[in-house]
Design goal:
The structure is a homodimer.
Chain A (H helix, E strand, L loop, with lengths): L12 H14 L8 E2 L1 H8 L3 H13 L3 E3 L5 E3 L4 H25 L2 H20 L2 H19 L2 H14 L10 H19 L3 H24 L2 H4 L5 E2 L4 E2 L4
Helix pairs in contact in A: 1-3, 4-6, 4-7, 4-9, 5-6, 5-8, 8-9
The first copy, chain A, binds a DNA duplex through helix 3.
DNA sequence: GAATTAAAAATTGTATGCAATATGCAATCA
DNA sequence: TGATTGCATATTGCATACAATTTTTAATTC
């Protein structure tokens, strides 16, 4: 049966604007703490206030926005305390993903991860950060996919969206980058042998190390100094080329 | 400074109706699959459609409701597959809570949990199920509190809210009840010695056993046979006295 | 010039209205 | 009798209106 014969997919305005706004926040379009006035957003998106307000409520319940009665929406900040809360939870979730992935991964999926890994390592060797982080993220996403637990994926995605909003000026140093690559090497090995317990431990450690990197950057006041959009990923902090 | 001098707490209609409706769903007021027409809910709560619609959107993003364009809100169902997804995630989160609690718990908190535990055991010896489950839940909540990670608590609470909506006819058998009590004994011991790793393992096992109980009840078609509100808790399935 | 007050403007929360869509029921056809 | 069609009714999505609250600006006082 062709695609033409299936049901016609529909998306409400509310769903569309929720997704759009979420992406914009996660991508750093609005810095932490910034006000999001309804009227401005309605003009930006060309819609009425009703679906926009519904979207704001949903994003607030996801932790991306802060709402207080009569005070409008504000992009939630990210403090070192927030980071200290988020990373252990994400670590636990990613460790579970690792265990489940080892139990459920197909040979094809494993080969895909391996291919991504070696491309990523090549970029590290060449010192190419943007493609490195891209591949790095893909690997983590593939592991979550291989876990085949949508509830887990949703929970993890929601939390990681909050982290990706942070902004920093500093790249991690070469030592930490090399360490991250080594951790990825261990991860691949554990996946290869389908050793779920081991992969879980590696992922937890990996996340702990990332937590320290993020906090160090926060402590350096990097968030306030940053003027450009920056994206955090696992093993490095990417500064887009202007 | 007295309470009178602090800021005046305000709650929007939206927040109030969201919380009310969430509680009603979690408590089983609306069976899985049931339609929640806007007009009916507006009459029930005595409010206009706007804050109600906003609440529906939030509860949908929490997984308690299902929304599709032009089809209104439906209470989300809970299948064996859902249960298979939820419990490992909850297990991972509760294991993390156990680790963090062992690192952070005060002597006072530990004494509180111990007191709750022994009361609970007494109810088990007397075969008193309602108070047993109440205390049981309090113990789990105390452990989460002792973990001092609001993000973790929020994530766990959201997931556990979905499970509490299930309904069943069967009580667990005496063997499983005794097993659950034994697991709680182990939990208290691990807490006492502040052995986070051990507590994490016990909690994971505890959740796995609970998962099997829930699935068995689901498989028995208990959900459809149930006519009265029933609440699942850890170690038994409580049928309220009519 | 700083502090205070009042007024104007902007923003937010909620209610209501209108159009589009879905559902239910009755009539018609094969 | 079952299937199809048409119409009426109900429900949902979104826009708009109104009132309440907050913020900003201007005027006044010390």
């Amino acid at each position: 049966m062709s695609q033409l014969a299936g049901p016609i997919a529909r998306q409400s305005l509310h769903d569309a604007v929720t997704a759009r706004l979420r992406d914009m926040i996660v991508e750093g379009e609005y810095p932490p703490g910034s006000r999001l006035p309804e009227r401005v957003l309605c003009e930006t998106f060309g819609i009425s206030r009703t679906p926009l307000r519904e979207a704001l409520k949903v994003l607030a319940s996801e932790g991306l926005l802060e709402l207080a009665p009569n005070r409008g929406a504000r992009v939630a900040g990210l403090t070192a305390d927030d980071v200290d809360e988020l990373f252990p939870v994400m670590g636990a979730l990613e460790a579970l993903a690792g265990e489940l992935a080892c139990a459920r991964i197909t040979d094809t999926e494993l080969a895909e991860i391996r291919a991504l890994h070696y491309q990523m390592v090549l970029h590290h060797k060449r010192g190419e950060r943007p493609p490195y982080f891209d591949l790095n993220q893909q690997i983590h996403e593939k592991i979550l996919e291989a876990a085949r637990n949508p509830t887990l994926t949703a929970s993890y995605t929601n939390l990681s969206g909050r982290i990706r909003r942070a902004r920093y000026t500093a790249n991690i140093d070469a030592a930490r980058w090399a360490q991250a690559v080594a951790e990825h090497e261990e991860m691949l090995e554990a996946l290869d042998t389908r050793d779920g317990g081991r992969l879980a431990e590696i992922l937890k450690r990996h996340l702990r190390n990332k937590c320290e990197t993020v906090k160090a950057a926060l402590a350096a006041g990097a968030e306030e100094a940053a003027k450009d959009k920056m994206v955090i990923t696992d093993d490095k902090i990417f500064i887009p080329t202007p």
